[in-house]
Design a protein that fits this description.
mainly alpha; 0% strand
Amino acid sequence: MNRYVTLIKRELWEHTSLFRLPAIFYLIVVLGNLIVGNLFQYVEYAPNNIQQGMFRGAFGTVNSVAFIAFVFLAAFYLLDCLYTERKDRSILFWRSLPVSDTETVLIKLFTAVVVIPAILWLTLISAHITTLILQSVLDTSEANNFLGVISLGSYWLNLAAVLLITMLWSLPLLSWLMFCSSWSSRTPLLTVIAIPIVVALVDVLLPFDLNLGSHMLSRLPFGFGNQGGASDPLLGINALTIAHSSVLSSSIVAVLSRLDLWLGLLVSAVLITLTIQVRRWRDAS
């Protein structure tokens, strides 16, 4: 167990952006929430449903900025992690340790899918608590409005669920990024983009339609460019505004019941297996 903890620490040591970006977005979210709270006074005489809708929308937007940024942080981390260790030859040192290729690849995937979302979750919770403390110290009425409109306990639970579903749904894309990082001899980003474009063009030329392009686009976080948010709220950009436990529960069940989610996990397993083999082969060469 200690070995795996050390391997995770290694990833955090080698990728300092995993520490720097949380601090930046912590400040952004705190300032954004304070601004939203101050603006709340201008709609205090509006009907309650309008107040709640406006406040939740603004609150969700502030947190969505950090959420989306962290998703891309995970993506670029996976795109870089296996390529850089070959480029700077640090892989020679790590290969001298009693750590298998399978363990290395799975730890890097775990860092992107679990550790980075956990950092985001703790960052946003810390930012929300800081917002309340600052509003209380400043003796403003926005703290009461903040707690009255947003149930932070439910919101934090929802945030954890959205993080989990987003990572599960995007796992084929994240696995593809990792595979390209292990396989590309140079510029992994070019490989990530070029091969799907070629596959989509081949699909267009086929006498039957497999919709490969739309399937690939559907794996982008929050359903960008596809049907994501329309059918399942947890796949849409409005996911961070869900606060009711009943809506959250039904949304989780709806997403986990989708066949394409489980097919995506199967594709991810294949890509990760290929990544492990390619890393071993690249090292041997």
